[in-house]
Each structure stands twice: as structure tokens, then as C-alpha cells.
Amino acid sequence: MTARLVSDRGTTAIDDRVIVAIACRAAAGTPGIGGVAGRLGSHAGAGEHPRGSTSAEGDRISPRVRISVAYPASVREVTRQARKRIQHELRTMTGLRVGPVDIDVAALPQGTWSS
User: Fold this and answer.
1) Domain ranges within the chain, ordered by starting residue
2) Which of 1, 41, 74, 115 has its CA 20 to 30 Å from the CA of residue 9?
3) Helices 16-28 and 75-94: crossing angle, nearest 10°?
4) pLDDT at 48
5) For residues 75 and 113, is the Cβ–Cβ distance under 8 A?
6) Phi, psi of 26, deg, nearest 5
């Protein structure tokens, strides 16, 4: 699937992989967030990255990111910061309209990670 940005100068197509990469990188830059391992129910810390997907309809995208939140951080606060950062980065880098950002918290491992 590809998001399309239409302007007076033409149409720009942005592949979903690019949108997911931007969203995951933005999430990874949020303090308190770690990645997830490839298997369902498993988690990882500093060496892993968030994973994601997106859906697109015209110039509107709705990203979904799967993360770990370092316990005892506030899941509500960390995910709020991540949503804000993801929306900002996607709007800034792609010019697309960003719909709801879904965040799946896959694990709450104990410890802290620096981002």
C-alpha cells in the first residue's frame, strides 16, 4: 500500500515501509521506550527497535507501532509522548495527514534504556 500526496506540482507516492520506518524511529527516540523481539509475547531492550505497520487512504495515514515500556515508567505518559513525536515526525517528513497513532505495548521489562 502507498500513501499519495497530491499537489499542484504532481503526486508524490510514499511507500508504507518509509512511513513505518519514520514512525518506529520516532518511537525509539522517546525516553522509556524499547523495542520488541520478533516473536509474539517476547520483548527486548536497548538493542531492538519498535516494529510497526500502517494503513493509508489517499494522503491520510494511520500508523501502528509495537513497543516495550521500561517499568516503572508511566505507560500512559510514555505512549502520549511517543504519539506526539510520531505524528510530528510523519507530518514534518512526509507532508501527509496523520490519523490516529495506535501503540501496542508488548512488554513492561524492568529497567531503563537511554534513547
Assistant:
1) 2-107
2) 1
3) 140
4) 72
5) no
6) -65, -45
CB 55 within 8 A of CB 1: yes
Residue pair 96/59 in contact by the 8 Å Cβ criterion: yes
User: Is residue 47 within 8 Å of residue 85, measured between CB atoms?
Assistant: no
User: Left if phi > 0, otherwise alpha if psi is -120 to 50, otherwise beta: which for 32?
Assistant: left
CATH number given to 2-107:
3.30.70.1350
**What is the number of helices (H) and of strands (E) in the chain?**
2, 7
